[in-house]
Amino acid sequence: MTQSDKIAPQKPHDESLFSISESIVVVDFGSQYSLLIARRIRELKVYCEVIPYNASFDEVMKLNPKGFILSGGPASVYETGAPLISEEILHSGIPILGICYGMQALAHQLGGEVEPGEIREYGHADLRRTDDEMALFRDLPHSTPVWMSHGDRVSKIPPGFKVRAVTDASPTAVMSNDSGVIGLQFHPEVAHTPMGKKLLENFLFEVCNCEGDWTPQNFVDSSIEAIRAQVGTGRVVCALSGGVDSSVAATLIHKAIGSQQTCIFVNNGLLRKDEAEEVLLTYKQNAQLNVRDVDAAELFFGALTNVTEPEEKRKIIGEKFINIFEAEADLIGDVDFLAQGTTYPDVIESRGPENTTSAVIKSHHNVGGLPEKMELDLVEPLRYLFKDEVREVGITLGLPPAMVWRQPFPGPGLAVRIIGEVTSEKVRILQSADAIVTEEIENAGLTREVWQSFAVLSGDLTVGVQGDFRTYGHLIAIRAVASEDAMTADWVRLPYEVLERMSGRIVNEVNEVNRVVYDITSKPPGTIEWE
Ligand code: XMP
Known about the structure:
By secondary structure, the chain is of the alpha/beta class. The chain has 18 helices and 18 strands. The structure holds xanthosine-5'-monophosphate. Xanthosine-5'-monophosphate binds next to loops.
């Protein structure tokens, strides 16, 4: 096995991580919503994984699927080379729910017909049932709004199927046969289909007879066993960043193997105000983790002297981190495993050839580079969890809410929020302004609603007047964004009073700053961080 195989497996679930008694498998035909479907299913307490449409059936069956969901996708079934449902899945006798392209593939492969629609149907439509008996519709109204996004449509349903619902533009909006094979032309997974979640719930519990045993406690119990089996009597090192993913991973591993794990926390001097002290205290008090705390601020500032180019800053910080981490691991001696807080979106993003060719917008530094260099096996207990599930596991493990609900913080820390050269003086100014932003967001009760909120030191000096004196001081920008996954983001419409308090406090309490602006750029075209 090569290192890259370890990092980005092409096969579905690795059974050694935790046991799965039942699951729903999303067969991915390239829809932008495949992960969203998986999230919806897991919210309903059924384990769900997304697999490529051409994954091996043997691997898929290891997930103990009680149902398949065929995703949408950009192709047309009548094009040559269009992705198809594997014959084994199609004839497995296990219930299938085809969504959009998934329904068209069902129709095409089971003897029906699909053709380009005369009218493309995008956005809202009213779904009217033509059959009130169907289990999928249990407790749903006769007519309900749904969200459509398709050009092709099913023009002839396959033998043995019946039309169960229509919209004005889709004479076959829902079809099914008596063996639990169902097609939906609309998207139940998106928020614009208000009854979509109920419909998915009916599929899980009325059609597939799922038990619904995917709970944080079950995950914790089964992961502890799996970690013990993987690590045996080996020694694990874990890079703790203070973020929720690495904290939860380390705590879970600690529950499994206790003192066989040593955590390394590197203070690079680029953390938020008082963050290093607070984080260390939390680790020691709440999780009894065995933490080596390395104060390397001076080393990092030295390496960043005169560096202004953003990518170079990231590279230097990443390399320094690896050097320090390796030296610490050497001191521990005989290390066999490296623990990482990799999560499911990281796994999916690194899967498939299309991702290896996509442009690098910013080189993200977590502990990338470490596994290859150190030749350690990875322990990644969270690699099949979504962020909200990681948080629930954190709460189940007894971590305090303040840690579990921390906003994401970039690996290179405040260095990517200081435009131009990073110095300890600039870090101090930014920390003070940033602490005010954080406090005011907290006072307004907005911490959980906002994906990230922080201050940026713009690197510009502007003229101001304070008392009778002309000042020439720093410009601070406030950034607050809403996002689901950091891939896209919108600036938050913070109440004027909150902005007013932030600005007033920053110019009064941070002497070096005389001007504050609010960043009103979404992503794209901006990014969340300024560098
Ligand atoms: P951007 O600025 O690319 O950020 O819109 C997207 C998300 O990623 C975080 N971020 C990083 N996280 N190492 C990290 O671990 C990094 O180098 C890094 N750069 C950005 C950023 O805070 C946001 O949540």
